[in-house]
Design a protein that fits this description.
Layout (H helix, E strand, L loop, with lengths): L16 E4 L2 E6 L5 E2 L2 E7 L2 H10 L5 E5 L4 E8 L6 E2 L4 E5 L4 E4 L7 H10 L2 E3 L4 H10 L4 E8 L6 E2 L21 E5 L2 E5 L8 E6 L1
Length: 207
């Protein structure tokens, strides 16, 4: 199963998404009477201004706007959980998830098979910053996923699928050790010694 987001359109013409300072925010959790779980600051702002405040905050990847009372939530830190928070129908949640999607395969897969699952959806297995990763995982109610990091056994460095060496990677205690493939579980990364089967989700990026 592939996660799906609301239609990407531009405010103020439509209300499916908000474009602020070059960041496109897409409506998530639509029709679920829920929003993300995390720490937030509350403001009395218009919808478009709410998006702008999030864009200016260094750790904000998601915001929510309540049409009842024009109340704005700017999330400064998402919790490492796959549980979302109940919210009134008037609260609309928008996240910076553009370019990425999660797959939930019908059966378990290895990291190598996960690569192919992404390719089948015209994508590549991906790695993304932790706030956006938490946003994606909450949106899909998923606690674990294969991600696009692997060890280069020539250099010993961990690289993504484009050959880049990501910065600020937060490994679980005792990791990465001698593992070769990376997976994410509620807020931290772990490494697998071998290419084992797992029923985890898969983080992909559009190629």
């Amino acid at each position: 199963m592939k996660c799906s987001w609301g239609t990407v359109v531009v405010l103020p013409l439509f209300l499916g998404a908000a474009l602020s300072n070059g960041v496109s925010y897409i409506r998530i959790l639509e029709g679920e009477d829920a929003t993300v779980s995390g720490d937030f600051e509350t403001y009395s702002l218009s919808m478009l201004r709410c998006a702008s405040v999030c864009t200016q905050h260094p750790t904000c990847v998601v915001w929510a706007w309540d049409s009842f009372g024009a109340s704005c939530r700017v999330y400064t830190l998402l919790w490492p959980t796959d549980t979302v928070t109940s919210a009134p129908p008037s609260l609309r949640t928008y996240g910076d998830v553009g370019g990425y999607f999660l797959l939930r395969p019908s059966s378990s897969s290895t990291w190598t098979e996960a690569q192919q699952h992404c390719a089948d959806e015209n994508g590549i297995i991906a790695f993304v910053g932790f706030e956006k990763m938490k946003l994606l995982m909450q949106s899909m109610r998923s606690s674990a996923a294969w991600v696009g990091l692997h060890r280069d056994h020539v250099t010993g460095l961990w690289k993504d699928q484009l050959g880049n060496v990501p910065q600020d990677v937060y490994w679980g205690s005792g990791f990465p050790g001698s593992g070769s493939y990376a997976y994410y579980v509620v807020g931290v990364l772990y490494s697998a010694l071998g290419d084992f089967h797992s029923d985890m989700g898969i983080l992909c990026a559009y190629a």
